[in-house]
Automatic annotation (TrEMBL):
InterPro entries: OGT/SEC/SPY_C, TPR-like_helical_dom_sf. Pathway: Protein modification; protein glycosylation. Pfam families: Glyco_transf_41. PANTHER family: PTHR44998, UDP-N-ACETYLGLUCOSAMINE--PEPTIDE N-ACETYLGLUCOSAMINYLTRANSFERASE 110 KDA SUBUNIT (PTHR44998:SF1). This is O-GlcNAc transferase C-terminal domain-containing protein. Residues 82-250, 258-340 form the O-GlcNAc transferase C-terminal domain. GO terms for molecular function: transferase activity. It comes from marine metagenome. Keywords: Repeat, TPR repeat, Transferase.
Length: 340
């Protein structure tokens, strides 16, 4: 709430402060505050398009328009990545016995990215690949961090390194492929990729939109993440994986529990619709569909993730406005990953 007030004050002082307006809209979306949704939609059509550049991720969850997302990313790159293209590191004359792959992220810890890639790191063929991990996040403890450190050949904590020091370190390792696991998401340091850390640079997992950067060569995706008719709105060459781009770990431990529906305030006999995405990813479009389902399916409930009390209050209010008993929305407290 304090952040919203601050952004509003900033816009009073400087009405054309596009980055502040974009962050304000993102915070309102975190609260599922759709009070002025028509004005918000108008803002989505112009922010980062006809205004100064805005952080691309602030708009990504709010507008399903790949063409405008590409335009926003291009504007962001033009304003924030002004390094002249660096020479591509020379490739070896012959293919090495082990390709050197570098993964760059702030999330080698108890984080959704690590939950997904734990098996990917563990199951690389060590006879063919040599893994480097560059961690620039501030969380440095816990079991998931230890797994990351143990499942790669070389792990570097670079959180305290300047960009120039990180670039020098990575380039000294003569990587064959550099993988950006963050894209334009929170805590990113994607700008270091403009200095060419490897001959091949890939956007993967964290940010499924186009980075619109000449220094990112490929994006890993699947036909759901990037449908073929949307391919034109990506600057990267798309590497389509055969089933899904998301590498869930099939060896993840599952808690042995004896919980019942009552433990989660769920009705014993009700049909349960469920969405555990962060609330800021919910828009009126999806919510309208869900409310129509509740109205059609008698005694059903909608089970959502509880992220903050403002979102809970606003979603209940929106349900009531659509003729649905707000008590049919049930919010789940966060659980440990093993229980989730």
């Amino acid at each position: 709430a304090a952040a919203i007030d601050s952004y509003k004050q900033a816009l009073k002082l400087k009405p054309d402060y596009a980055a502040a307006e974009a962050q304000l809209l993102h915070q309102l979306q975190r609260f599922c505050d759709w009070t002025h949704i028509d004005k918000q939609r108008e803002a989505y059509r112009r922010l980062g398009i006809t205004t100064k550049a805005v952080p691309p991720f602030s708009m990504l969850p709010s507008e399903d328009n790949a063409e405008r997302q590409l335009a926003r990313s291009r504007a962001w790159v033009a304003e924030n990545c002004k390094q002249q293209p660096c020479p591509v590191p020379a490739r070896q004359q012959s293919r090495p016995n082990r390709l050197r792959i570098g993964y760059f992220s702030a999330d080698f810890h108890d984080h959704p990215t690590m939950f997904l890639i734990a098996g990917l790191l563990r199951d690389h063929d060590s006879a063919r690949f040599e893994l480097y991990a560059y961690s620039y996040g501030r969380y440095t403890s816990g079991d998931w961090r230890k797994r990351a450190e143990g499942d790669v050949d070389h792990f570097f904590d670079v959180a305290d390194l300047s960009d120039s020091a990180l670039i020098k370190l990575a380039r000294s390792h003569q990587l064959d492929v550099a993988v950006d696991l963050k894209g334009y998401t929170e805590h990113t340091r994607s700008e270091v990729f403009q200095y060419r850390l490897a001959p091949i640079q890939i956007n993967y997992l964290g940010y499924p939109g186009s980075m619109a950067a000449d220094f990112i060569d490929y994006i890993l995706a699947d036909p759901i993440v990037i449908p073929k008719d949307q391919r034109q709105h990506y600057s990267e060459s798309v590497i389509y994986l055969p089933h899904t781009y998301q590498p869930n770990d099939d060896a993840r431990e599952i808690a042995q529990t004896s919980t019942t529906r009552a433990d989660f305030r769920l009705p014993k006999e009700a049909f349960v619709f469920c969405c555990f995405n962060n609330n800021y990813k919910i828009s009126p479009r999806e919510f309208d569909i869900w409310m129509r389902l509740l109205l059609k399916v008698e005694d059903s409930v909608l089970w959502l993730l509880k992220t903050n009390h403002w979102a809970e209050q606003n979603l209940r209010k929106e349900a009531e406005a659509r003729g649905v008993d707000p008590l049919r929305l049930i919010f789940a407290d966060k659980r440990k990953q093993i229980e989730h």
